[in-house]
Amino acid sequence: MIRVVLADDQALLRSAFRVLVDSEADMEVVGEAADGDEAVALVREHGADVVLMDIRMPGTDGLAATRALSTDPELTDVHVVILTTFEADEYVVGALRAGASGFLGKGAEPGELLSAIRTAAQGEALLSPAATKGLIARFLAQGDGGSGGDLPGAGAESSRLAALTAREREVLTQVAAGLSNDEIADRLDVSPLTIKTHVNRTMAKLGARDRAQLVVAAYESGLVRPYGSEPGA
């Protein structure tokens, strides 16, 4: 059972999300929050697996709450999905840096929301190729937020990035393009299990908690250039 916390200052929207989530046999809403502090408290109390987090809330916003969750060593299995009205929102990049697994527009179809919850619960990143090429590349190319904030391993050609093998760099480039393990395996003509091993090793070397942080690290380090100037980017 996937335990979900809903964090949004609009009660009507939370109610709609609750009905949708609770209608599924494999997930349940364990708490609702109207601000970031309440969301963090609920997660700590109920041990939620996924948080649907509105990025803009009064008081403690979704960005601060995401950072609080991702930096708590006791909450490493909690995954945050940012809910935003506009996909081209500079705050989304900040949320990814803070530890979010990805983002979803509030206008998404019900099936997309449920799929996002299941994807996040599995530790996968919610970043489509279009999102990585557009949103991530655009704001990182503009130096949004400066040095990379809280992302472990961020910064130009750090020693962590230098520790990657040639194959790990190649795989990281494909991850940054929003490709799944199966898609990368098909491109590189190896097994998905081999790609999973490379991804896990890369995450360990960069100190990244999930694929979303790998994507941001790839752009911020310069391994992947904005707007597809690198193969597979």
TrEMBL record:
Parts forming coiled coils: none
TM stretches of this protein: none
The HTH luxR-type domain, residue ranges: 157-222
Listed CDD domains: LuxR_C_like, REC_NarL-like
Superkingdom, taxonomy of origin: Bacteria
Pfam entry (one): Response_reg
InterPro entries documented for this protein: CheY-like_superfamily, NreC/VraR/RcsB-like_REC, Sig_transdc_resp-reg_C-effctor, Sig_transdc_resp-reg_receiver, Tscrpt_reg_LuxR_C, WalR-like
UniProt xrefs under Gene3D superfamilies: 3.40.50.2300
Keywords: DNA-binding, Phosphoprotein, Transcription, Transcription regulation
Residue intervals of the Response regulatory domain: 3-121
Residues recorded with modification 4-aspartylphosphate: 54
Xref: SUPFAM superfamilies: C-terminal effector domain of the bipartite response regulators, CheY-like
PANTHER family, per the entry: TRANSCRIPTIONAL REGULATORY PROTEIN NARL-RELATED (PTHR43214:SF24), TWO-COMPONENT RESPONSE REGULATOR (PTHR43214)
Protein name: Response regulator transcription factor
Organism: Streptomyces tubbatahanensis
